[in-house]
Amino acid sequence: MRVFVTGATGLIGSTVVAELLDHGHTVLALTRSDASALAAEASGAEPLRGALADLDVVRAGAAQADGVVHLAFANDFSSPEALAKAIAEESAALAALGEELLGSDRPLVTVSGTPLVPGRASTEADPVSTDGPVGGRGRAVAAVLDLASRGVRSTAVRLPRTVHNQGAGGFAGLLTGIARRTGVSGYPGDGAQRWPAVHALDAAVLFRLALEHAAPGTSWHAVADEGDEVRAIATVIGRRLGLPVESVPADSFGPLGPIFAADQPSSSTRTRQELAWTPKHPGLLEDLENVQP
């Protein structure tokens, strides 16, 4: 299968591209810079120059492919305005991809987040939130899944709060960056809230399985660790960086503060059973031992 991949040179995208190539697919990679184009070529993918906001390029990529995996996101959490801009850009790109694939029965695999369900671990049957700081992403993903009734084999791989590799990535990576800047490895509240996690290499396998086998309109959970306590995450980060570990106000984390403070474990039981997905790589707390002082 010739697969168009957005976000192909990021932490997750680079592992997805490698997984696809290792299993006989070819990859057309959206690349927004010369450096990204060179990285895509070095990985064995064909670069297509353009940014996520270049909707004509996005459509052209989908038109040349047998399937699409969408991973690109600006990841600008510096302010509510920046986050809203990133979500609007992604939503427009997803709409363009969907329009190009209408009636083709080709797969469109998009990325989502695991939902928060008070009092229990969320499952694949739970809807994602369409409210709050990242509610716009939930609405865009819902629109993609609705394309299942219009001839698109659309599906969503829901990623946990931390997708990690060699100690980097996700919410835990943000905690590490904040700790380096502030001199404190902080966590909101009492730190007993739980965040799910997955190694990027395991997540990449699930993206491939969804592309190859998932039924239209389905959602899947790329969750290896159902929920690590944030205090435990901050403790490993603090030890690795030689910094004190302390509770800090949730608003210290900017627009993500309310999300950081929430207990949000998640299950992947159905995903493991139906797609035969088995995580094999180190869990988050073990992987954080790779954080460099």
UniProtKB/TrEMBL annotation:
A GO molecular function term, named singly, is: aldehyde dehydrogenase (NAD+) activity
What ranges does the record give for the region Disordered, renumbered to this chain?
Answer: 262-293
* CDD domains (UniProt xref): SDR_a7 (cd05262)
Domain (NAD-dependent epimerase/dehydratase): give its ranges.
Answer: 3-216
- UniProt superkingdom: Bacteria
**GO cellular component terms attached to this protein's record:** cytoplasm
Name the PANTHER family for this protein: NAD(P)-BINDING DOMAIN-CONTAINING PROTEIN-RELATED, PROTEIN YEEZ
The protein here is known as SDR family oxidoreductase
Which lineage is the organism of this entry classified under, starting from the top rank? Answer: Bacteria, Bacillati, Actinomycetota, Actinomycetes, Pseudonocardiales
